[in-house]
Amino acid sequence: MNGDLYTELLDLACGAFLLAAVLVLWRRELAAIVRVFALQGVTLAALAVLLGGHEQRWDLVGVGVGIGLLRAGLLPHLMRRALTVHTADRAHREEARETQPLVNVAASLLTAALLTLLAYAVAHPLTALHPTPATRALPVGLAVVLIGFFVLVTRRRALAQVVGFLLLDNGITATALLATSGVPLIVELGVSFDVLLAVLVLQILTTRMREAFGSTDLDDLRELHD
């Protein structure tokens, strides 16, 4: 793979990776949010495979394949299972949407733009030290970290907050890949199993919350507690 093609494909993968995070802020339907998260998993896997292929590191290509299976396959599947609702029931239909986020869509998109600019400003001294196609894309990973944290603190549905946590983790993984030209396979496997365990626990908690209280809106649960 020549340098120009590698750079173009890397920029395309990073652009799609960041766009998926922004789309999570735009969409209200939880099923659509899960699909967008799966798409981001594909772009993250493509990012790892591109880096591994360019540097002829087959362990990194293996990391990319593992990321794709876990973050574009297994994790979205588990979240879809947690999202299974009875559409005949109006209250359950409302569970399938993020009806009242703490920040509206327009303000969320504006905040995403500001967070992206902040990521580029923070990462500029780092990219200047060793300007390669990978390090120049480093702000994308940092921007997704910030957007994931923003989703985590502004969404009210438990499943939407799970997606925010996973966006945060995807951003950290992308930052590690771009900043260090990949992470060891054993490290990525350990992190991935931790993330999988966290999602399994959150899926169980979400199901129990719906069975016990009929809702996964955390504000409603706080009112019950009060």
| N-to-C span | 61 Å
- The residue ranges in which pLDDT falls below 50 over 5 or more consecutive positions are 86-91
- How many distinct beta strands? 0
- The share of residues in helices is over 70%
Shape: globular
Would you tell me the overall average pLDDT? 79
Overview of the molecule:
The protein is mainly alpha-helical and 226 residues long. It is built from 10 helices and no strands. It has helices at residues 3-26, 30-55, 58-82, 90-95, 105-129, 133-136, 138-154, 158-180, 185-213, 218-225. α1 runs parallel beside α7. The protein is globular. The termini are far apart. 38% of the residues are buried.
Brief overview:
With 226 residues, this protein is an all-alpha fold. The protein has helices at 3-26, 30-55, 58-82, 90-95, 105-129, 133-136, 138-154, 158-180, 185-213, 218-225.
Primary descriptors:
226 residues; 0% strand
Lay out the secondary structure.
Elements lengths: L2 H24 L3 H26 L2 H25 L7 H6 L9 H25 L3 H4 L1 H17 L3 H23 L4 H29 L4 H8 L1
Helix pairs in contact: 1-2, 1-7, 2-3, 2-8, 3-9, 5-7, 7-8, 8-9
